[in-house]
Specification:
426 residues, Beta Polymerase, domain 2, two-stranded antiparallel sheet, 58% helix
């Protein structure tokens, strides 16, 4: 259960990474309020319990002090609502609209709350994945039955399939694409940029460890494990400094220091340098992970192997659902997919398009345009399930396609939890 106010005053830290009582109390208050709003929203709908997972459950939460006072969250809140099996579908649909209302009720700028819905039956049959392993081993019951996780299956970290790490790479790249800014941010936006950049570097490290079957749950363990992996694999040949950056941002989560981050990347040019490094890291890991998982060399053949990895029946069902949602606009995408032998689900194609767009983003932040940038943009436009105008100049084509790719991801993966993208390049 979330500690009471009396326990907050006298109890040990529970959610914060570093010995920072203010951060810990900040999250305790948010979690108590969130659990109460969820309880009211789900009353009479068979809710068994609310379970906290992710970095806060690990005790690795962080927050950033604002100049005007108060804190800005540096960690997402990952919650699982456990209900009886017959209620899962209804409750899942209800949470799509509730998430936005919950964020409004909590009233904390920059806060992200992810709401998953599961059941005791599903918990007893959990398959190995990063999210599932963290949930059953570190999950904390905020409300409801304190024995919820007792009968859950307990897959081992070594059993997590490498493709789970690849999915983390795809999700992180798409989220970075959604948050992309072409100009150096200022003030609070700058703090947000460095928070996201650090999270990206840490998640890329986690992705590599999962693919290598070397995942460890805590931040400290992952920081210690990555150098051994980099000694064995040629990742840093294409992404020099990745290991050092990963260690730096693991330390930064414990002791955030904006000035230290600026100095590390060159003060005035820090934003551009960070963006350039991020692209190199994604490039290197994309090529290494596709070769390791799919046995295909980098290039079009590897991307075809990735997009063709789903069983045909599953692909067909996914396209039928896509056309029902998109109407006539989805038919053109299906025709393009059929021309290529129906190589992917719409979601798999959208992920691949997102990674291509992120890899092509250099010219928008001031880097010299490469031949591959236009090739990546053209390929992204060809495979994205929801197309965009392909006749404008590079920046406008990139922006339009980014809007459709990230919009699709927000609807299909994030349940509409991310705010709409700006219509003009920031």
């Amino acid at each position: 259960m979330v500690p009471s106010e009396k326990e907050e005053r006298s109890g040990p830290l529970r959610f914060a990474t570093s010995p920072d009582r203010e951060t810990d109390l900040f999250y305790r208050s948010l979690l108590r309020r969130a659990a109460e709003e969820i309880r009211k929203e789900t009353e009479g709908r068979g809710l068994v319990s609310v379970v906290l997972s992710g970095s806060l459950a690990l005790g690795e939460g962080s927050a950033y002090a604002l100049e005007e006072g108060g804190l800005r969250p540096g960690s997402d809140i990952d919650l699982y609502l456990v209900t009886e099996e017959e209620n899962v579908g209804e409750l899942s649909a209800r949470m799509v609209g509730f998430r936005e209302r919950l964020l409004s009720l909590l009233g904390v700028p920059g806060l992200v709350v992810d709401l998953g819905v599961t059941s005791p039956d599903r918990l007893a049959k959990l398959q190995p994945s990063v999210a599932n392993c963290l949930l059953v081993r570190f999950g904390k019951i905020l409300a409801g039955d304190p024995e919820t996780l007792r009968l859950a299956s307990r897959p081992r970290f070594e059993e997590i399939p490498p493709r789970d790490g690849f999915l983390l790479l795809l999700n992180r790249a798409t989220e970075e694409l959604a948050e992309f800014r072409a100009r150096a941010p200022r003030g609070a936006e700058e703090r947000d940029f460095w928070y996201r950049f650090g999270k990206t570097v840490r998640d890329l490290g986690t992705s590599a460890l999962v693919v290598a079957r070397s995942f460890r749950p805590t931040l400290r363990e992952r920081r210690e494990a990555l150098p051994d992996l980099l000694k064995r694999e040629p990742i840093e040949e294409r992404a020099p400094g990745f290991g050092e950056d990963h260690a730096f941002w693991c330390e930064q989560k414990e002791r955030p220091d904006l000035e230290e981050a600026r100095r590390r990347y060159g003060n005035a040019g820090a934003f551009r340098e960070a963006q350039a490094r991020k692209r190199k890291y994604v490039d290197a890991l994309w090529d290494w992970e596709t070769a390791r998982i799919f046995g295909a060399r980098p290039g079009a053949a590897a991307e075809e192997a990735i997009r063709g990895a789903d069983p045909l029946r599953r692909r067909a069902r996914a396209w039928i659902r896509f056309i029902r949602r998109e109407g006539a606009g989805g038919l053109g995408s299906l025709v393009r997919a059929l021309e290529r032998g129906l190589p992917a689900t719409p979601l798999a194609a959208n992920y691949a398009a997102a990674v291509l767009l992120l890899r092509a983003s250099g010219p928008l932040t001031g880097e010299e345009e490469r031949t591959s940038d236009r090739a990546f943009l053209a390929e992204a436009g060809r495979i994205a399930p929801v197309g965009a105008n392909g006749k404008d100049a590079f920046a406008r084509r990139w922006l339009a396609l980014r809007g459709s790719v990230c919009g699709y991801w927000n609807r299909e993966v994030m349940g509409g939890s991310r705010p709409p993208l700006p219509v003009e390049m920031p």
